[in-house]
Every structure is written in C-alpha cells, then in structure tokens.
Design goal:
Blueprint: E1 5-12, E2 15-24, E3 29-31, E4 34-45, H1 47-50, E5 55-64, E6 70-79, E7 82-91, E8 96-98, E9 104-106, H2 116-122, E10 134-141, E11 144-160, E12 163-173, E13 186-191, E14 198-204, E15 209-218
C-alpha cells in the first residue's frame, strides 16, 4: 500500500557491502487518468566498500493500482563506473512500449518491468503451491522480453536483522554462466503472509557469496508473519 518501506542490508561474505531501500510513494498519482503506485528502489554501497566497487542505483516504476502493470519505468544506475539510463513508456492497451530513444516495440499482454515484476510477484497466490511448481512472469529487460521464472521450494523459518519470520522459499531460475554457476545458485525467502515481503536472499556467485536481509519494515498493508 502507499507508504510501504522496506530496508535491507547486503553483505559480501562477512563484509557489509551495501544498503537498499524499496518504497511506495505515500501519494497515489495518476497517468492517463488511471491511479498508479510510484515505487522506488535504491541501492548504495557503503563508504568502505566504495573503494572496491562503487554502486549508486535507482529504479522507479509507475504501476497501475488496479491492474498491476507498469505505465512507466525509469532506471538510472552507476555500478563501478558502468552507467545505464533507461526511460520506458508503456502502452498496455496497445501491447507496446517506447524506450528513451523514442523507438517503439510490441510486447506480450501485461508485460512487467524490472521493478513492477517484484510487486506483481508479491500478489501471486501460493496457497496451493507444491514444491517444484514454477511461476512465470513476462518481463522487459534491456529492450528484450525475458520470461522470469520462480520455483516454489516450500516453507521455512528464517531469521533476519528485523526478526524471525515464517517464510516461503523460492529459487528464481536465472541465467547461469554470467555470475552464477548454476541456475539454482540464488534463493529468496518471502514472508508467509498476505504481504509477501522479501525477507532474505542468498546467492552463490563465481567468487564468494552475497546475502541480503531485511533490516526494517513499515507501512505494510497486512499483519506480518513474525515469530518473535
């Protein structure tokens, strides 16, 4: 709901590396006479880690309040000096989008962007899910249509900086060979409640491991499955 805020701590091995905040603007705005959520994700390496690899990332999406599809996506990232700027405008009724260069392309129905996919996934119903079930979300990533897949891995209890929670575990099916050796080298846990907030993510990469865990949360729409 408007005003939701999730804060995370990321560490590389035993070293604190970065912080991330994902939030929903308290004010619901309008695009094309439709109410939209303005969601913002920001990731920043801590000062001590900047010496090794400086990151300043910002992602924004304007998501249709009723239909949970994007109207606009903005990406402005700087990762170790590698910069990406994107600004996509979506036309859901026409199944199309336009990039920052003004180039237009067709898309599948209700395609998601990199941020809206995160919120769309949180609205999926996992009540009758069985271990091994795969959920698919069609995403637009770098001007390409990408079939995001997440594999249901069952229920567990996880402990984070924000406390201990009942959780659902997933293994996003990812592209191996880039920074991951195997498709299942990334695991994500979300709260086992109606909020479905990400609690923790753990990734085995080519060199070492990376872990993200929930530090603070506020403005949730529903009670959270916290154990203590």
């Amino acid at each position: 709901k408007p005003g939701e805020r999730l804060e995370y701590r990321l560490h590389y091995g035993v070293v604190d590396a970065a912080t991330a905040v994902i939030k929903v603007d308290p004010q619901v705005t309008k695009i094309n006479n439709r109410e939209v959520y303005h969601v913002i994700g920001e990731g920043t390496t801590v000062s001590s880690f900047d010496l090794f690899f400086k990151v300043r990332d910002k992602y924004e999406s304007y998501i249709d309040k009723q239909g949970m599809f994007p109207h606009r996506f903005v990406r402005n990232v700087d990762e170790g000096g590698y910069k990406i700027q994107q600004d996509y405008t979506f036309y859901p009724a026409k199944r199309a989008y336009k990039n920052q260069k003004g180039e237009g392309y067709m898309t599948p129905e209700f395609v998601q962007d990199m941020m809206s996919a995160f919120y769309y996934a949180r609205n999926l119903d996992f009540t009758n899910a069985k271990k091994g079930d795969i959920f698919k979300i069609t995403c637009l990533v770098d001007d390409e249509i990408f079939p995001l897949k997440i594999k249901y891995m069952g229920k567990e209890t996880v402990e984070t900086d924000a406390g201990k929670f009942n959780a659902i575990k997933f293994a996003p099916v990812i592209q191996k060979g880039r920074i991951f050796k195997r498709e299942e080298d990334l695991s994500v846990w979300i709260s086992d409640d109606k909020n479905h907030i990400p609690l923790m993510a753990s990734a085995k990469i080519m060199v070492g491991s990376v872990k993200m865990e929930l530090k603070k949360y506020s403005g949730l729409a529903n009670p959270v499955a916290r154990v203590n």
